Amino acid sequence: MRLQASAIALATAISFSQPAYAQDEAEMREAIAQMRAQMAEMAARIDSLESDLAEAEAQAQAANTAAAAASEAAAAANETAAAAKSSAPKVSWKGAPKFEGEGGWSFKPRGRLQYDAGTTSAPSSTGRSDGFGNEVRRARLGVEGDIPGGFGYKFELDFAGNSTEITDAILTYKDGPVKVAVGQHNNFQGLEELTSSRFISFMERAAFTDAFDFERRVGASLQYHKGDVLVQGGLFTDNIDDLSNKNWSADGRVVFMPKMGGTQLHMGGSIHYTDYEAGTSLRYRQRPFVHFTGERFINTGHFAADSELGLGVEAAAISGPFHAAAEGYWQKASRPAGLSDPTFFGGYAEVGYFLTGGDKRGYKGGTFDRVKPANPVGKGGMGAVQVNLRYDYLDLNDADIIGGKQNGYGVSLIWTPTAYTRFMMNYGKMSYDDAVYPTGSGDTSYSVDSFGVRAQVDF
Fold this sequence. Notes:
Layout: H1 2-87, E1 90-93, E2 97-100, E3 106-121, E4 131-147, E5 151-158, E6 165-175, E7 178-185, H2 191-194, H3 207-211, E8 217-226, E9 229-236, E10 248-256, E11 259-260, E12 263-275, E13 281-282, E14 285-286, E15 298-299, E16 303-304, E17 307-319, E18 322-334, E19 343-354, E20 362-364, E21 367-369, E22 384-398, E23 401-418, E24 421-433, E25 446-458
């Protein structure tokens, strides 16, 4: 019984365990199937992510390549811009634009315009014309600049007087203190002559400079300028408008120009010699203080000459608003056929003073230079105002030639609103002895009064 009961219990347990085991196996299979599905889905997702990653890496690589190309293009553009900037001319302003390029090239237009008007008054019985006169004294246009290698150039034309004349036509070479010039340019006959007409203290230069026919000539010159010493010399033919002829000349000038404290000093001397071709005649004469009249009250008339020799001395000082200057010049003419050789003399002395504070007369390289107002018009000031007094002497009497004597007394008032504009007012009283035009009573000693005004602009 006991055995039978055990058998029955075992059989019952077996019968109950068979369905439970079958149920667990089915659930396991279902779980495994779900896991496989999930793994397949994960694998598919991984494949998708790998594809997206590859695509992103490709896009990043393309972006990097494009960025590198853009950087190279920007660098190239910067180099091109830098090259363009370095090759572009530099532009500055000195009355007119000055263009400076690579290697030492430069170019600047230049010019000046001077319009004069005024009156002259001479004894009516001399029969000479007087009264109102006016003219375009100078109307010049030109260019100047530098050429690589130390070379330079200047070319200028003057259109005043209903004609066109070449004033300057120069090629220069500069190496340190040495400067060589070839072409039409000033020779070296003193401070007054070499100071530009833009910067002189009266409307006209001292009488002797015009009377002795100082002018630009074609030639070659050498200049040495170092420190306080200036030495100039050259060989010349004639003015470019008078070529061709056999005339030639030699000129030299030495200047010592030290500064003592705030005072600029100037001391110098010059020598001039001209040899004329056979048959040449000279004539020394001068207008009464202004140029717009054609009358000359002192005049040697024409006389034959083989050569001329000139000797000049010059001195000046600038101290703050005050300046003083003086020159003397002896001109000896050698005549043919045993005729006596006359020696004529001219000179001047002047003083000047600026009435406006902070202004003074300019000086550079052995000549007077531009006045630059401390308080110009347009910048809250009234410009520079200067007054000048001058004594101007000329003696054209010597040997058997009676050309007359001049004792001139002049005063000028100059207003310089800006560095490149100028207005002048001059009065001069010319006292003559042995004038070439006698009065009705035969008197050759009398005075001529001149008054003039000038408007000037230059660049």
